[in-house]
Design goal:
One of its GO terms (cellular component) is encapsulin nanocompartment. The chain is an all-alpha fold and 127 residues long. The protein contains four helices and no strands. It folds into two domains: 73 residues; 30 residues, no CATH class.
Length: 127
C-alpha cells in the first residue's frame, strides 16, 4: 500500500517526516493491540509477563512519536491540551473547547459542564 496520496515530489522533507511519524505511530498502535490480545489469551505466566513488557515498550514508542508530532506538526499541541490528562466525560470536552456544533466563538459556547443549565435562556416574559 502506498503511504502517499499526493505526489511525493510535491511534499517537503518535513511533510515526508510527518508521513513517517504517522505511519510509525499506526504501526506501534497495531503492535500494542497484538501484544495485548496475546497477553489476554496466554496461560503461561512467564510468556504473559514477557508479552506485557513488549506491549508496554510499544506504548512508549507510540508516545514518543506522539510527542514529536505535538512539537512539530501544527494542530497536535492544541488538541492534546484539550483532551489529554483531563477528567470527566471525554466527549463533553469538545463542546467545552469549541461550543455547540463546533463553534469556536466563546460567546456561543453555552453553559459550562455541570452548570445545570440547558443553555436556552430564560423563558419568563416571553408571552
Amino acid at each position: 500500500m502506498d503511504q502517499y496520496h499526493e505526489p511525493v515530489a510535491e511534499l517537503s522533507p518535513l511533510d515526508r517526516d510527518f508521513v513517517r511519524a504517522l505511519m510509525s505511530l499506526k504501526e506501534e498502535i497495531e503492535a500494542i493491540n497484538w501484544y495485548h490480545q496475546r497477553v489476554s489469551a496466554a496461560t503461561d505466566p512467564q510468556i504473559k509477563a514477557i508479552m506485557a513488557h513488549n506491549r508496554d515498550e510499544e506504548m512508549e514508542h507510540a508516545i514518543m512519536g506522539l510527542e514529536w508530532l505535538r512539537r512539530t506538526m501544527p494542530g497536535w499541541d492544541a488538541v492534546m491540551r484539550t483532551y489529554l490528562f483531563t477528567t470527566g466525560d471525554i466527549t463533553a470536552l469538545e463542546d467545552a473547547a469549541t461550543g455547540p456544533a463546533g463553534s469556536t466563538d466563546a460567546a456561543q459556547a453555552g453553559p459550562s459542564a455541570g452548570s445545570g443549565s440547558l443553555g436556552i435562556g430564560s423563558l419568563k416574559g416571553t408571552r
